[in-house]
C-alpha cells in the first residue's frame, strides 16, 4: 500500500522557516508530515545529507520521489486551500526568475547560518 502523505523536511532552528511551518501546520489538510532536519538521525533511510537538507527545502512525496527547492515549497502549499496562489511560480515564464530568487535567498541563509559549522566539523551539522 502506498503512503498517503508527503513529508516536508525543514530547518527547525531557522526562525523564518519555523514561522512558515507553523502557518503550514495550521492551514494544511492533514496530508503533510513535517520533519525537522535537526531531529533526523545520521544515515537515515536514504535521506539526502544533512548539508543538502539545510541548503534547500526538500519534500518526499507519498510515492517516495524527492521534490527540492521552489518545487518543494509549491508542493507543500498545495496541501492548503491557498495552494493555487503558489502554482504560478512554476509557470515557464515565471519559474526561472522565481527559482533564482529562491535559490539566492536559500544560499544566503545557508551561508550566513551554517558555512562556519560545515568548515569546523566537516559533517554538515551544527557544532
From TrEMBL:
Species the sequence originates in: Marinobacter salinus
PANTHER family the UniProt entry points to: OS04G0668800 PROTEIN, SI:CH73-390P7.2
Lineage: Bacteria, Pseudomonadati, Pseudomonadota, Gammaproteobacteria, Pseudomonadales
Protein name in UniProt: Thiol-disulfide oxidoreductase
Family annotation (InterPro entries): DCC1-like, DCC1_Trx
Pfam family, one: DCC1-like
Molecular function terms from GO: protein-disulfide reductase activity
Recorded superkingdom: Bacteria
Residue ranges of the TM segments: none
Amino acid at each position: 500500500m502506498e503512503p498517503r502523505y508527503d513529508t516536508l523536511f525543514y530547518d527547525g532552528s531557522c526562525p523564518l522557516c519555523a514561522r512558515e511551518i507553523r502557518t503550514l501546520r495550521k492551514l494544511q489538510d492533514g496530508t503533510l508530515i513535517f520533519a525537522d532536519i535537526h531531529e533526523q538521525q545520521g544515515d537515515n533511510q536514504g535521506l539526502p545529507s544533512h548539508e543538502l537538507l539545510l541548503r534547500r527545502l526538500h519534500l518526499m512525496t507519498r510515492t517516495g520521489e524527492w521534490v527540492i527547492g521552489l518545487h518543494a515549497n509549491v508542493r507543500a502549499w498545495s496541501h492548503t486551500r491557498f495552494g493555487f496562489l503558489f502554482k504560478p511560480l512554476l509557470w515557464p515564464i515565471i519559474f526561472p526568475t522565481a527559482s533564482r530568487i529562491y535559490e539566492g535567498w536559500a544560499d544566503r541563509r545557508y551561508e550566513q547560518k551554517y558555512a562556519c559549522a560545515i568548515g569546523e566539523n566537516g559533517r554538515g551539522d551544527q557544532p
